[in-house]
Amino acid sequence: MLAQLNQSARLLALAGLRSQYPESSETELRRRLAGLLLGEEIAYKVYEASMA
């Protein structure tokens, strides 16, 4: 039940980001979501490493 609640929260946050940044790609939206969930510093490190 907790996993489902967590997934629902992520989907709601992603929907909010889509409405706030309608021009963003799916990759950019997921990067922004990571920033919300992990903090900007960690999200930056994770996404920079995966894009290298």
Notes on the protein architecture:
The structure is a single chain. With 52 residues, the chain is mainly α. It has one domain (2-51). Helices cover 85% and strands 0% of the residues. The chain has helices at 2-20, 26-38, 40-51. α1 (2-20) packs across α2 and α2 (26-38) packs antiparallel against α3. The longest helix is centred in the N-terminal third of the chain and has 19 residues, at 2-20. It is globular and about 35 Å long.
Features of the shown structure:
0% strand, single chain, mainly alpha, 52 residues
Structural class: mainly alpha
Terminus-to-terminus distance:
36 Å
- Poorly predicted residue ranges: none
| Helix percentage | over 70%
Total number of beta strands: 0
Question: Beta-sheet strand percentage?
Answer: under 5%
- What is the count of DSSP helices, taking H or I runs of 4+ residues? 3
Q: Order of SSEs, N→C?
A: HHH
Largest sheet: none
Kindly state the mean pLDDT as a whole number?
Answer: 92
- Number of domain units: 1
Q: Radius of gyration over alpha carbons?
A: 12 Å
What shape does the CA trace take?
globular
